[in-house]
């Protein structure tokens, strides 16, 4: 029996504290929450409603519990998931997604801990977890786990969706192992860049976890779910609709970050069902990779990061409008069951039973 649910994309907003630069230049806090789901500017002229608005006193753990856990739990039972942060450079995307491991972990390490806790506590299910870590920089997909793999290509496979050809996928059995992969990825990001800040604000990084799961007893079906955890480039590269856009600037930015610009268009088209214009997933690497998620079959949680400061007003407004459009998108989420013998769980089970057979022969 096919298991389907129809849901909206979950959209939350996180307001960060004023930063030292904003404080030093006399910046004023002009955005604040009004109740748990509304954000208003101080004049009260503009107000927006989301699933949740988080203020500067909220920590990432709380955001993860409200915006992340449901996505991860769905993945553990076979539904695709996607969590990403959207906002201008310096608004807190990396702080939210990655954070600081020991003192203030972000959504990625918290998700990983949650996944392996679930694996450990589960007595009636077997799991196999694979991870990959890539960046998209100037429309090139680079493997962050193997720095010699640059400009990887995408292939579409009718059965298994969109794949990155040749990307490193590590089978992981513990949080510690995944954290060391993350550390390798971070090191490669640093090595690859001459100007780390500039590059990190213009590249997208995607930590991808593939969760194969199977009931221990009876059932032979394996559920395969993909979880995409994405730290996006700064959205100021994509403000074609913002008040600051002019054609020269948007042309320049289009070259710099086609992916983010296309993401904006894809979200706009998906949110406007009356407009039958085609959805340009194929126009960029990011949207091509996210096509299965954005098209519908994925539980999606978007965290929009903003500065509360008056001098970021235009960028913040543009982020809030992006968030509003995303909120309208409906997803039809389907469990991905398969009997495909290519799933690693099945492959490993076969290998184990062959080895057991050989062992028995040797003992006889
Ligand atoms: P982005 O990835 O959006 O460019 P960062 O996450 O790197 O921005 O954040 C910029 C700076 O602001 C970092 O020093 C980060 O630690 C700090 N910061 C961001 N959000 C918060 C927050 N909610 N609380 C405290 N510091 C934050
Ligand atoms: Mg960042």
Automatic annotation (TrEMBL):
GO terms for cellular component: microtubule. ATP binds at residues 87-94. GO terms for molecular function: ATP binding; microtubule binding; microtubule motor activity. GO terms for biological process: microtubule-based movement. Residues 8-329 form the Kinesin motor domain. Keywords: ATP-binding, Coiled coil, Microtubule, Motor protein, Nucleotide-binding. The keyword Zinc does not apply. Belongs to the TRAFAC class myosin-kinesin ATPase superfamily. Kinesin family. This is Kinesin-like protein. It comes from Stentor coeruleus.
């Amino acid at each position: 029996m096919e298991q389907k649910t129809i849901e909206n994309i979950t959209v939350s907003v996180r307001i960060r504290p004023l930063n030292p630069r904003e404080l030093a230049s006399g910046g004023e806090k002009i955005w604040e929450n009004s109740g748990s789901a509304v954000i208003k500017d101080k004049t009260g002229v503009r107000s927006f409603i989301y699933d949740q608005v988080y203020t500067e006193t909220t920590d990432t753990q709380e955001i993860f519990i409200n915006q992340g856990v449901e996505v991860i739990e769905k993945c553990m039972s076979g539904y695709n998931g996607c969590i990403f942060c959207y906002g201008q450079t310096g608004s807190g995307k990396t702080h939210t997604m990655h954070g600081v491991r020991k003192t203030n972990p972000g959504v990625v390490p918290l998700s990983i801990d949650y996944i392996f806790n679930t694996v450990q506590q589960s007595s009636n299910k077997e799991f196999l977890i694979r991870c990959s870590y890539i960046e998209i920089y100037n429309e090139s997909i680079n493997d962050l786990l193997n720095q010699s793999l640059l400009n990887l290509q995408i292939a579409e496979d009718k059965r298994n969706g969109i794949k990155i050809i040749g990307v490193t996928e590590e089978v992981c059995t513990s949080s510690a192992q995944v954290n060391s992969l993350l550390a390798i990825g971070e090191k490669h990001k640093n090595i690859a860049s001459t100007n780390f800040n500039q590059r990190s604000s213009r590249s997208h990084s995607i930590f991808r976890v593939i969760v194969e799961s199977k009931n221990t007893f009876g059932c032979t079906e394996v559920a395969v779910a993909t979880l995409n955890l994405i730290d996006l480039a700064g959205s100021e590269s994509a403000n074609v609709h913002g008040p600051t856009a002019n054609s020269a600037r948007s042309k320049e930015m289009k070259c710099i970050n086609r992916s983010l610009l296309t993401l904006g268009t894809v979200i706009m088209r998906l949110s406007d069902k009356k407009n039958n214009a085609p959805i340009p997933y194929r126009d960029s690497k990011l949207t091509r990779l996210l096509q299965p998620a954005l098209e519908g079959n994925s539980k999606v949680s978007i965290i929009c990061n903003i500065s509360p400061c008056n001098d970021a007003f235009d960028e913040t407004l543009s982020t809030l409008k992006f968030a509003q459009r995303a909120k309208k998108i409906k997803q039809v989420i389907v469990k991905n069951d398969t009997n495909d013998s290519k799933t690693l769980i099945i492959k490993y089970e076969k290998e184990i039973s062959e080895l057991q057979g050989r062992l028995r022969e040797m003992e006889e």
